[in-house]
Amino acid sequence: MKPQIALQLWSVQEACKADFLGTLTKLKEFGYDGIEFAGYYDHSADEILEMLKKTGLSVAGSHIPWDQLDTQLDDVMAFEKTIGNTRIVCPYATFSTAEEWVAFIKRMSEVAATVKENGFEFFYHNHAHEFKEVPTEDVLDWMTRESKDIQLEVDLYWLSAAGKEVPKWVHAHSDSIGLFHMKDMKKDPEESTEIGSGILPMKEYVQLAKELALPWLIVEQEAFQAYTPVEAAKIDCQVLTSIVEECFQ
């Protein structure tokens, strides 16, 4: 089965603030199968569900800040259940000591277990710092060793930015990976750009997704050079769709 393609809505956050439904409608027109939420812009769960029905978009997942997951988990799960989401993602965490990371991972594993008991999957989304904050340690390794309930949403851009050999790292952690974040990289300055316009081997990354039988490839772009975020989202979808079609012939 080919993976479906979604957009992490952080990529088009200003457009979502201005016109949430209109932006979602455009994303469906661009060819996206679904979206990954990064906030709801003061809309209720019922309102979000209605937008999804109107646009025909599916929910690939939702990024939920850690403080909400830690202190408001029942409310989070109720909201996500209403909108039809089954994947809850912790998008970011950072700590200055190994001891703080260990305590966080222990607490996160408890949250992940509760999430799983309630019919969801739980993911942690990486950046580059998880490979650098604790000298000689890979914090993502700690997570997967601590709990089988924690899966990884691997951001391949940040994996590369951290200096990791992406295929080797992915293969070594394949049992824990459930989603990919897809974005390309330009140099000088080093930042994200439209898929196909940068230096990362995006076709190789899609092949990795095929090996892992991942259900979603989630586009994310955080920096923009020649195009607006919405224009870039359209290009990202077109190029990634073409690569997926080529890899799954």
From TrEMBL:
In which domain of life is the source organism classified? Answer: Bacteria
Query: Which InterPro entries does this chain map to?
Result: IolE/XylAMocC-like, Xyl_isomerase-like_sf, Xyl_isomerase-like_TIM-brl
**What's a Pfam family in this record?**
AP_endonuc_2
Q: Where is the Xylose isomerase-like TIM barrel domain?
A: 25-241
Identify this protein by name. Xylose isomerase-like TIM barrel domain-containing protein
